[in-house]
Specification:
2 helices; 2 strands
Length: 96
């Protein structure tokens, strides 16, 4: 992979991360997610352990945790985000 291809891939990952972050914010608004201070057993694990940047679930509490540039996203947040994007695509309006 040459530098141009690598730079393009990095830009695409950064854009996808921004889109996922926006979808996660929308998901949080829709579901009324608890604040971090009201942690449940599925929330952020001890320091240094990887966790989902969106729902705060630790790697041991999800099926898959995908790493991005400085962030992680779990399989469940990916599924929900995809549903949000698909619903915005199907009705012709941007939902995010």
């Amino acid at each position: 992979m040459n530098k141009t291809e690598r730079d393009k891939m990095v830009r695409e990952i950064e854009e996808a991360t921004r889109e996922l972050e926006a979808a996660a914010r929308k998901l949080g608004e829709r579901t009324g997610r608890l604040a971090e201070s009201e942690a449940s057993p599925k929330t952020r694990p001890p320091d240094k352990a990887p966790y989902c940047s969106f729902c705060q679930a630790g790697a041991n509490n999800v099926k898959r945790l995908v790493a991005g540039p400085g962030v992680y996203i779990c399989d469940e947040c990916i599924r929900v985000s995809s549903e949000i994007v698909e619903s915005s695509d199907s009705n012709g309006k941007e939902d995010i």
